[in-house]
């Protein structure tokens, strides 16, 4: 895959969790995992409000769009693997350069990988990659107040809440409030993965 975007493609690994660039060949696994976890993921999946242009739903169209944006440096779509199995995604989106140098991060993991520390480790690796080789200054994660699993992820990573956005995103068929968490390069010079390891050692 040819691209001039910094930090892409990439493969990151820590404690048995692998985060790597999304590929077209992931189609079968992606569709199988999404289908198997439909009920698990549905309450947190983005939806399209009435009157807006529909989002692509097939893997082929989704990945085509994501990889096109990745080549332009607008997003970084990653797969999460555990024991050589596709178990989720971390997507860095809305990459802004210029005077901003920030992006937002979204993630999901399959039910079978939940509660095993996979999501925090994967997100920590991606944050460190973005604040390092990608060259960003600030990362933001927006979480619904009801999403206790995702709230535990940002808690373990030590991310500070910086705001609250009423009716921020259209999720599961309605506009939903979100808590906004963020981290800048200055706040965590040792890296978020190192912060996570410290948190785990104190448990």
The gyration radius over C-alpha positions equals 16 Å
Summed over residues and divided by their number, the pLDDT gives a mean of 93
Strand content: 25-35%
How would you name the CATH homologous superfamily? Gcn5-related N-acetyltransferase (GNAT)
Structural class: alpha+beta
What features would you describe in this structure?
This protein has 203 residues and is of the alpha+beta class. It has one domain: Aminopeptidase. The protein is 30% helix and 32% strand. It has an 8-stranded mixed beta sheet with strand order 1-2-3-4-5-6-8-7, sandwiched between helices. The radius of gyration is 16 Å and the shape is globular.
Write the layout of secondary structure elements.
Blueprint: E1 11-14, E2 17-21, H1 27-36, H2 38-41, H3 59-71, E3 76-82, E4 85-96, E5 102-109, H4 118-131, E6 138-143, H5 148-157, E7 160-171, E8 174-184, H6 192-201
Helix pairs in contact: 4-5
Key features?
single chain; 203 residues; alpha+beta; Aminopeptidase; eight-stranded mixed beta sheet; 6 helices; 30% helix; 32% strand
Task: Report a brief summary of the structure.
The protein is of the alpha+beta class and 203 residues long.
């Amino acid at each position: 895959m040819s691209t001039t975007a910094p930090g892409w493609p990439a493969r990151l690994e820590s404690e048995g969790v692998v985060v790597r660039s999304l590929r077209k060949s992931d189609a079968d696994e992606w569709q199988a995992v999404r289908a198997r976890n439909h009920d698990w993921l549905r309450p947190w999946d983005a939806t399209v409000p009435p009157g807006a242009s529909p989002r692509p739903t097939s893997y082929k169209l989704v990945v085509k769009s994501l990889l096109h944006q990745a080549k332009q440096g607008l997003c970084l779509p990653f797969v999460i693997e555990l024991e050589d199995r596709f178990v989720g995604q971390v997507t860095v989106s809305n990459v802004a350069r210029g005077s901003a140098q920030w992006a937002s991060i979204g993630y999901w993991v399959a039910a079978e990988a939940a509660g095993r520390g996979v999501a925090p480790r994967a997100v920590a690796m991606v944050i460190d990659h973005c604040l390092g080789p990608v060259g960003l200054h600030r990362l933001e994660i927006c979480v619904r107040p009801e999403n206790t699993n995702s709230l535990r992820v940002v808690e373990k990573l030590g991310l500070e809440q910086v705001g609250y956005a009423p009716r921020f995103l259209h999720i599961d068929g309605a506009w939903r409030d979100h808590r906004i968490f963020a981290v800048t390069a200055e706040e965590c010079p040792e890296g978020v993965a190192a912060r996570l390891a410290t948190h785990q050692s104190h448990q």
